[in-house]
Specification:
Elements: E1 3-4, H1 16-23, E2 33-39, E3 42-46, E4 49-53, E5 59-60, E6 65-68, E7 73-78, E8 81-85, E9 90-92, E10 98-107, E11 116-120, E12 128-134, E13 141-148, E14 153-156, E15 159-162, E16 165-171, E17 180-189, E18 192-201, E19 209-214, H2 226-239, E20 261-263, E21 268-273, E22 276-282, E23 286-289, E24 295-297, E25 302-310, E26 314-322, E27 325-335, E28 342-343, E29 348-352, E30 362-369, E31 372-374, H3 377-381
Parallel strand pairs: 1-10, 19-21
Antiparallel strand pairs: 2-5, 2-7, 3-4, 3-6, 6-9, 7-8, 8-10, 9-10, 10-18, 11-12, 12-16, 13-14, 13-17, 15-16, 17-18, 20-23, 21-22, 23-30, 24-29, 25-26, 25-28, 26-27, 27-29, 27-30, 30-31
Length: 384
Amino acid sequence: MIRNAAGIFAARSIPLLLVILLRIPGVLQASEYRVTAFSGKVTVLREGEKVRAVSKGDVFGPGDTLKTGRDSTIRLEEGKTRYMVYPYSLVLLGENPEVAWGKLSSAFDDRFLDIRFFLYPRPAQGKTLKIGLRTGREGLLLRSCIRSETGFRKEIVFFPLGGGDYRALTGFDIGLKPDRYLLEIQAEKEGAKETVVYPFYLKETRCESGLVRISGGKSGLFEPSEEKKTQAKKLASLLADRSPDALWEDRFIYPVNEPCVISRFGRRRVYYIGGKRSGARHHRGIDFKGEVGDPVVAPAAGVVRSCTNRVTTGNTLVIDHGQGVFSLFFHLDSISVREGETVRRGEPVARVGETGITEGSHLHWSVVVDEVWVDPIDWIEKKY
């Protein structure tokens, strides 16, 4: 059985308290791990310090940590269980092996899962992240999350693509702290298990700033109300749904003809209402220049999930592209499709307006992936 590390270990040190705990008689049943094979140079650490290199036939137990490098692996046996520690891994041996980072497989024979994964593009604030798995095995039980030492945790859902390949799409909020995070993947099938713990740093996305001036006549739209709370909860519930099929096939297209961006995603906007400052927040969408009545088209195929009028965003259209990916259009003058209707890429769905909280006609387009508001431009420039 593989169990994840309770804490995150720094590259060259392991918490002394944990090592001491593992050595107290009766706290953990001593398990012995015998080296059956290895390649390259594998080292043993104790209390964060290198002890020696590994040799075939060595036996290790609680308090020992195995560290592999770029070209090294090691195989172990403990009772009837076989383990494989892959390159670039740090594994703490105890009652069960615990992965600080890297990849560890277990099985009752030598048929390990050996899943391969990739991330695209580099994780960054306000950006979409695609996580791909290549396993060659159908029907894997997959559990995954992204977490940090500071308490952040987000569950990740993988969808099968066929042929033993799987894909997950998620995103990072524009306000999420640039910090060290860990992608954790657990895979299991027919007694074979594998855990991957991959550390990465979230790249900062620099955003421009600007002012938004709202006339005093619309100041009431900013006031808290039960109606706004109800609408926000309803939208959040809708965006939490993940239909199993991806309905888009290629890159997205712009939702307007001759697109002219007047406010980019992530822009830190300072609001003035009736001449008085009323806070600041990041813009979680793109605003396009447009006149009332200009056509709006679907950027990709999908199913219409909501056509409604909201206090803040006015006439609002939500299109579900599948697997937790949504397009949202705000401030519309009119909507020409109905809930439940399937739309094609490039099909007219609405017209530009100036409803809700806005000073002048324009189209606001947002893309939400895995309940995170991300930069829509990435979906035009990249194929996910």
